[in-house]
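ok trying again, last paste got cut off:
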Amino acid sequence: MSRSYIFSDEAGCFAFLKNNRASKYFLVCTVQIEDCTIGDGLLELRRDMVWRGLPVREQFHATEDKNDVRTEVFDFIGNHDMRIDATLLEKSKAQPHTRHTNEAFYKYAWFYHFKHVGPKLLKGHTEAMITAAALGTKKGQAVYTAAVNDVMQQTVQSQQWKTFFPRAVADPCLQVADYCAWAIQRKWERGDEVWRDKIAKQIYTEYDLWKTGEAHYY
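nice, full thing came through this time. structure:
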């Protein structure tokens, strides 16, 4: 049997309004790997950074890490074999029925992401393990968990699959997904491609779901 390991994170917020703090896009990003040795290497990198006196915390988190830490993590990620895919939803183009709750919009984004790239991530594998970063409260997480499981039931045909939703601190491979999602978000939100360029060769798709849409709802 062959197993595909898929790690997922999101970027952007659920605020459907225009101001300086609300994101323009919501995106789902997946990192697909054949084994999880990159996670072992990331832990070793953190130990080495601690020894060298760099300002590391209990986990790597792209938004909060300092640039010297961020640079080394991106250089490390960029030298590993993986497949990165992102699906972006420009929030102002979201029709009201797709965003009546945060959970509904999250499920909508996940469905179209996995509908678009799922077959490619699972090709040649008999099993898939999907690990997605936990969101929000325990009660809220149950809703997000159910949404992903429902999407998997709709989109996966023959492979056996399992899902897991830990906090990113629990799995270094989720921290890799966090970094990838952050870099892609920086490109689309700010036009800053410096960090994305470090992982460009591993990015297979950046799918703007509503690229051809012209209607904006706020």
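cool. The beta strands are 3-11, 25-33, 83-90, 127-132, 160-164, 203-208. The chain has a mean pLDDT of 93.
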